[in-house]
Design brief:
It is built from 11 helices and 2 strands; from the N terminus they run H-H-H-H-H-H-H-H-H-H-E-E-H. It has 201 residues and is mostly helical.
Length: 201
């Protein structure tokens, strides 16, 4: 069994993520067979995504919420973890400046994004939003409509008008400071994390 945080263990986990679909992961790690329940923990990585961080952030709470498909709580936890990444001032104010997002480590954004991808069957995550934004010609109005943040000229109201399950439009969440204009999400979607493997393609 690989040791948590060892290089070999992380490479092993990355291999499993890159070679198995999110649906396969859910099936494997929630098996109904008693034999599978005994076999899998000893033969496969203990978690489906290596929770890597260049700033010693613990992403376990986010992983747990996403595994439970509690997407609304996971969205709030995502913002909390990004504020932790930004530093004590952001933690206190509970929102982000775009300049803080620009300085986020690639590793951490990829960890957050990969967790969202895995537990939404590839439907949610920053890299998904980036693909939709690029396919919209970087036109924000088209982008908002495609991901369900606007209907016509009306903004979707937080939290009750958002859809917190897999029936939501592709790219609907995470919200990434949705109420504070385009600068934060623009910084996220332009981040170099998405031109580096594994999350951004």
């Amino acid at each position: 069994m690989c040791q948590e945080n060892s290089g070999g263990c992380n490479r092993s986990k990355a291999w499993w993520y890159n070679n198995f679909s999110p649906t396969a992961y859910k099936t494997l790690f929630n098996p109904s067979s008693s034999q599978a329940r005994e076999f899998i923990p000893n033969q496969l990585p203990t978690r489906s995504v290596p929770l890597l961080s260049d700033r010693h952030i613990d992403y376990t709470p986010l992983e747990q919420l996403l595994a439970q498909q509690d997407f609304q709580a996971a969205d709030r936890m995502t913002l909390q973890k990004m504020c932790e990444l930004a530093g004590p001032d952001a933690v206190q104010r509970k929102w982000l400046y775009f300049t803080e997002v620009e300085n986020f480590p690639i590793t951490d954004l990829q960890t957050i994004n990969t967790l969202w991808l895995l537990h939404s069957e590839g439907k949610f995550g920053f890299s998904v939003q980036r693909e939709i934004w690029l396919s919209s010609g970087k036109n924000w109005d088209r982008f908002w409509l495609k991901i369900g943040w606007k209907t016509g000229n009306t903004w979707t109201r937080y939290p009750n008008e958002f859809t917190w399950d897999l029936s939501a439009p592709k790219g609907h969440i995470p919200l990434s400071n949705q109420l504070r204009g385009v600068r934060v999400i623009a910084a996220l979607l332009n981040h170099p994390a998405w031109s580096s493997s594994p999350s951004g393609g």
